[in-house]
Amino acid sequence: MRLETPFWWYRKTGVLASVLAPLGRLYGRVVEGRFAHATPYRSLLPVVSIGNFTAGGGGKTPTAIAVARLLMARGERPAFLTRGYGGATAGPIFVDEGREASEVGDEPLLLAEIAPTVVSADRVVGAKAIETTDATVIVMDDGFQNPSLHKTFSLIAVDAAAGLGNGLIMPAGPLRAPLEAQIGRADALLVIGDGGNAASLTEAFERHGKPVLKARVAANCDPRWLSVLPAIGFAGIARPGKFFATLRNNGARLIDTRSFPDHHRYSEREARRLLDAAQAKNAMLVTTEKDWARLPDEDGTSVGELKHRSRPFPIVVKFDDEAAVTQLLQTAISKARP
After folding, report:
1. How far is CA 49 from the centre of its chain?
2. Whole-angstrom Cα distance, residue 315 to residue 324?
3. Closest to 99 (Cα-Cα) out of 77, 78, 107
4. Measured between alpha carbons, how far is 140 from 123 in angstroms, rounded to an integer?
5. How many CB atoms lie within 10 A of CB 241?
6. Whose CA is closest to 34, among 124, 182, 147, 149?
7. Do 274 and 285 touch, CB atoms closer than 8 A?
8. Rg from Cα positions in the chain
9. Residues 258 and 283 sit within 8 Å (Cβ to Cβ)
10. HSE-up (13 A, CA, CB side) for residue 158
């Protein structure tokens, strides 16, 4: 289970962040040392990396799916490579029908609905497994911070409303490494949604002469069902508030919300409380696709009942300029091929 994102990461620098800042700088030097001494494996296939600069959230998985769909539209055969956070297996393992989130994680189950997916803690071993298939390109969901595998093209996703928080390195803030070093390893920035908190990052990419793209999160279904009954929203993701705002923006009449840590495993007690609240208030239960994928499909338990009585609200990332994204991908992939 992951811990909740500290609320002060996304506020102005306070006392605790200041106290932890030296530790963050030390952590940043350790991270950069790993990259400096690494000899990354260059896969036989082009590797498109979808990552972010901060811990948690950012929209990496829906962006990876959107990129894969663009590639498929151009005749490519993408395969996903992912760590499978929250799953018990280290891999490499192909995510086929019947796999459970407890084994491979929640995100791989969503990715596998789109294209072949390999879960591997060792990205190099995972890439080599994909090389044995008929895939023509690897789309790596997360892994930008992993120096072991060479990236053909690194697209960085950032939530426009959240930005980089206080701009400090973990544990003082959400940054995973020094900002300038991360920008140096990135190829393009994707700003998702509305808000001005990513403006400074956008300016930094533009100063480095790197492309800045825009996208939005949209419903991947007809959202009118959200307004039929009052709703209780629940989510165990990095920023549950973003999901609840999406529900409201699509017509949901939210009468209650329940937030849990990222990749949360629901207990019988938590599931029963959600079910009882929905029954008492004559409300429907709505959650994210990731949360719904984590719930076990089993009879005789409260968590199984929660899966059957709740409904996921599917979302999709839509690029403002698909042609520009496609061109960047095609150019990078073409250069990587013999």
Report:
1. 12
2. 22
3. 107
4. 9
5. 13
6. 147
7. yes
8. 20
9. no
10. 29
Long-range contacts of residues 3-10, Cβ cutoff 8 Å, at least 24 apart = 3/261, 4/261, 4/262, 5/55, 5/56, 5/57, 5/174, 5/238, 5/239, 5/262, 6/171, 8/166, 9/165, 9/166, 9/168, 9/173, 9/174, 10/162, 10/165, 10/166, 10/174
CA distances from residue 165 to 12, 137, 141, 263 in whole angstroms, order as listed: 8, 33, 22, 21
Give the closest residue to 309 by CA, choosing from 325, 292, 329, 327: 292
In this prediction, residue 2 carries a pLDDT of 46
How far apart, in whole angstroms, are the C-alpha atoms of residue 93 and residue 71?
23
Structure tokens at 35: 């990259």
Confidence (pLDDT) at 102: 84
Percent of the chain topping pLDDT 90: 78
253-293 pLDDT, tens digit per residue, is: 999 999 998 889 999 999 999 999 999 999 999 999 999 99
Tell me how far apart the alpha carbons of residues 173 and 176 are, in angstroms, rounded to a whole number: 9
Whether pLDDT at 1 is above 50 = no
State the pairing for strand pair 117-119/93-94. Answer: antiparallel
Is the distance from CB of 303 to CB of 266 less than 8 angstroms? yes
The 10s digit of each residue's pLDDT in 315-333 is 999 999 999 999 999 999 9
| Residue 107 bridge partners (DSSP) | none
Phi, psi of 133 (to 5 degrees): -100, -175
Q: Are 232 and 278 in contact (CB under 8 A)?
A: yes
Lowest-confidence pick of 82-96, 139-153, 194-208 = 82-96
pLDDT in tens, 67-76: 999 999 999 9
Tokens describing residue 332: 């990078």
CA distance 322 to 127: 27
